[in-house]
Amino acid sequence: QVKLVESGGGLVQAGGSLRLSCVASGSIFRIEVMGWYRQTPGKQRELVAHITSGGSANYADFVKGRFTISRDNAINTVYLQMNSLKPEDTAVYYCNAWILSGATISPTNYWGQGTQVTVSS
Prior knowledge:
Blueprint: E1 2-7, E2 10-13, E3 18-26, E4 28-39, E5 46-51, E6 57-59, E7 67-72, E8 77-82, E9 91-101, E10 108-111, E11 115-120
Parallel strand pairs: 2-11
Antiparallel strand pairs: 1-3, 3-8, 4-5, 4-9, 5-6, 7-8, 9-10, 9-11
């Protein structure tokens, strides 16, 4: 059984910073792409950033220059450093990963439970 657990969300003032973490645990052989998505009520979940196992990162235009995604493959963890936060960044942030476990022959997509980020103006 594979699980993703996020942490680091909270309330911050506009212009402030937060760092999200997501740890993958369970029967893991290899983790391919890891990423962060976000969702606000009434809207579809949207990609924020993702990073390959080799460290190649891609960002949504609305976070470029403000957010940085990174990962530590040794501890199956992905991070999202969020700087210069804006009220419109308020959302539930979800961790996502494609994971090859010992029981499968192709990667399976997993989601975390989400962590709330609230940016006050």
